[in-house]
Structures are given as C-alpha cells and as structure tokens.
C-alpha cells in the first residue's frame, strides 16, 4: 500500500473515532460559574490545556480568573472566521502569545506548524503554565493543533488523542486537517519501527 493510501486510511480511522466518541457533560470548574457558557466556550481537554472559541480568547476577565498563562491563536487576523488579537492584546495580563494566520480550509497546510506549536505548548506546561489554544469556534483549527501536541509530546496515537479530547469537547477538524494529522501519526510510527529495527539486543 502506498504512503498516500496509508495516510488516507489512517485519516478515516481518526474520523471514525471522532464520530463515535461523544463529549461527556463537562464544566471547566465552579470558579468560572460567573461566566455564561453561552458567551465563553472553553473546555479543559488535558491537564492545564484548554480549547476555546473567540469569546474565551478575548475575555480578559475570564483569562485572568482561569489563570491562563499562554495562548495559541490559530486564526490570527481580521475578517470572517478570524480572531484579531496579538501580543499587545495580552501584554497587561502577562500572557505569552503565539499566533498563526490560518484559514479553516482542507487545503490549509497545518502540518508544517505542528512541531512549533507543540513545542510552545510543551514548554508552557512544563513550567506549570495553563495554555488556551483557540480559533474562531474552538472546533477545527485549535483542535488539530491540540491533537498534534498530544501525538508529538504525550506519545499518544492520533486515534487515542482524538478520543481523549472528544470526551471533553465536541471538536470537529476538517477532513484535510485529519489527513495531515494522519501523515504525522504514520511518520512517527515508521520512525519508531525503524528505530526498533536498528536496535541491538
């Protein structure tokens, strides 16, 4: 089977996990009860790692109360479906910021950014920070980078990462993003196989 076919097959497996895993009733904590879930849409999907929408990312009171220390904006820019924030927006809160100007389209190349974003998140969490990864709705762009982080830094398979996050939030990355995640997952699996094959016992 060609690598292209392997990637497509893996993408279908990840998508099936996404469709079959239902988000469990979940709240991000009673300390946030003053914020209506209809205006601030944010869920903790892994320890100190959150996925949220535009409103969560732009609500300075919410960010302050929730103790967010780092933000990854995967939809940086102005216009429909984008979130127009930058480093200056969060300066007074002391939040460290990373922004990516990406459209929620299947043809958008997210794969090339996976490692940089995973490194940013990993460093923040290692230093006891709290990270919010967001896009406009908190379903596709932010989700795919959170999944890539779990694959790259927490040694999860893409399917396991999807199940982990979907239990806590109703994410739905587009098909092109899922295929790029599959490319990453298969690449790491091949690398592990090669490493094992070269090991001496």
Q: Which stretches are low in confidence, meaning pLDDT under 50 for 5 or more residues running?
A: 27-34, 196-201
Radius of gyration: 17 Å
What is the mean predicted local confidence, pLDDT? Answer: 90
Q: What class do helices, strands and sheet pairing give?
A: alpha/beta
Shape: globular
Textual characterization of the structure:
The structure is a single chain. With 201 residues, this protein is an alpha/beta fold. The protein has 8 helices and 5 strands, in the order H-E-E-H-H-E-H-E-H-E-H-H-H. Strand 1 and strand 2 (49-52) form a beta hairpin.
List strands and helices in order, with pairings.
Layout: H1 3-20, E1 42-46, E2 49-52, H2 54-58, H3 60-66, E3 70-73, H4 87-90, E4 96-99, H5 114-126, E5 131-134, H6 141-153, H7 158-166, H8 175-198
Parallel strand pairs: 2-5, 3-4, 3-5
Antiparallel strand pairs: 1-2
Short description:
This protein is α/β, with parallel strands linked by helices and 201 residues long. It is built from 8 helices and 5 strands, in the order H-E-E-H-H-E-H-E-H-E-H-H-H.
Quick tags:
alpha/beta; 8 helices; disordered C terminus; 201 residues
